[in-house]
Amino acid sequence: MAHDAGWGGGAYGGAPYGGGPYGGGPYGGPPGWGGWVPPPKPGVIPLAPLGLGDVLGGAFSTMGRYWKQLFGMAAALYGGAALLMAAAVAIAYSAVSDRLERVVSLDYGEEASSADLVPLVTAGGVLVLLGIVTMAIVSGLVYAAVPTVLQEAVLGRPITFAAVWRKAWARVFPVIGALILTALVAIVPVLLLTTALITAMVSAITMASGGGSAIAISVGVIGALITGPLAVWLWTKVCLAPAVVVFEGQGPVAALRRSAQLVRGDWWRIFGITLLAGLMAAVAGYVVQIPFSVLGVFPAMIGSASLEDDPSPTAVVVAMSGYLIATVLGGLVSQIISATFPQLVTGLLYVDRRIRTEDLVPVLAEAAGVPAQGPHPPPPYGGVAPQW
């Protein structure tokens, strides 16, 4: 069973702060000014247990030093996905545009024929399926690329775009499996709350006030409140799974078990830091979207002014194309931020937990080519040294 190395006792000696992990003085260093020597820092973090500042600083440093690999990969993937979906929508629209215009132009009380509805529903279903598959592959590649870059950033080593792509593609499907299993943790409260919201919207639109709607809304809200805390607890336990897949080459199920093992004893800290990282990314993404939305308003105003009294769907799309493009670009930049920064923080938390519980510092120091200062305990798990 892993033991918590931390800063004091056992793992680094018996004196305060480890009795000399970074030297031989009474305060962990050689005699001199303060008697303390900072831990080696070959990359974006010091090779020691990480505090909140170390984790956030390491994430920002990684984005600054490896921005081409991180943002280039994310931009290429999400941008390619957006272009693919745009081409698919254009092809689908050209195939069913006549039927769509007939359905839109129906008078009140008229029903659309099945000959028009079936192709529209089929095209919509194909687009939804294509979007799900595309986003699953793209998200898997991004979630595999971020830990791949971070693995080298911790050691201070360079990595090329091609190397990131090769390593990410090699782990993409296990990462997708880990993401799906992680998402299933929160599916029950999400479904309950979604059902309650849809029922409330339908009741408001139809002006229905039956007892069945009230019961459905109450059951959905109460069920979400009951199952929500359990989902949050489970999600925090398995949030390190994508990093485990990339760093250790584990499969999806084994990665979830490994994540739960690493989180044990530090749940509140990991929950707080991941929540903070998610909020920071959400705020940054929202701020980034504002100028794109503002810029998109002007072509939308110009285009809408040229519309006729009864415009066709094609004319509406053309008139709003400027606003749609600006919105997509803003969403693309926001998605890059929200997919990169929180995963960097999660990956650094994974490294921190292994430093604290498995004495990973000597292994990192050896891989980085820096001296592992101070005494270290025997490796855990029956004398098997941890791997990086």
UniProtKB/TrEMBL annotation:
The name this protein goes by in its record: Glycerophosphoryl diester phosphodiesterase membrane domain-containing protein
Query: What keywords tag this UniProt record?
Result: Membrane, Transmembrane, Transmembrane helix
Q: Where are the transmembrane segments?
A: 70-96, 117-146, 172-193, 205-226, 270-292, 312-333
Tell me the classification of the organism that encodes this protein.
Bacteria, Bacillati, Actinomycetota, Actinomycetes, Kitasatosporales
Q: Does the keyword Mitochondrion apply?
A: no
Transmembrane helix as a keyword of this entry, yes or no, is yes
This chain's source organism reads Streptomyces mutomycini
**Domain of life of the source:** Bacteria
